[in-house]
Amino acid sequence: MAVAGSVNWVVGPIVVFTVLSLLALFMRWAFGTGGTQPRHRRPAPADDGLLLRVATTSSRESALALRAVLSDAGIRSTVRFPGPHRAEVLVFPEDADRARSLAATFPG
């Protein structure tokens, strides 16, 4: 009778440990982030809402300088950075024609 009690005392923790380990592995598989797979950046939204793109530059500084020129002309604008070494200047539709003409003469 003493042998049966000691076997339960040894087997019980092993069963509990095995069940918890399997549960942990399942949870990691079900709710994991994919481990070593690289995360992909979400593409830039195709819809700019009310804004229209008037210029695309290869540097942040050029885009900010163009934005300052547009601001001096009374045109509200913003800059979006959709990728490395790329900046887009966006304006409202009512200012788009004037902004494009200023951007065409912009040396940067």
Q: How would you describe what is shown here?
A:
By secondary structure, the protein is α+β, with helices and mostly antiparallel strands. It has helices at 2-31, 60-72, 96-105; strands at 52-57, 77-83, 86-91. A 3-stranded antiparallel beta sheet has the order 1-3-2. Strand 2 and strand 3 (86-91) form a beta hairpin. The chain is rod-shaped.
Class from secondary-structure proportions: alpha+beta
| Strand order in space, largest sheet | 1-3-2
- Strand tally: 3
In terms of per-residue confidence, which ranges show pLDDT below 50 for 5 or more consecutive residues? none
Can you count the helices? Answer: 3
Rg for CA atoms:
30 Å
Helix content: 40-55%
Mean pLDDT: 84
Major β-sheet, in short?
Answer: 3 strands, antiparallel
Q: How much β-strand is present in the residues? A: 15-25%
Q: State the shape.
A: rod-shaped
Strand and helix order: HEHEEH
What's the N-to-C terminus distance? 92 Å
Which helices and strands, and how do they pair?
Elements: H1 2-31, E1 52-57, H2 60-72, E2 77-83, E3 86-91, H3 96-105
Antiparallel strand pairs: 1-3, 2-3
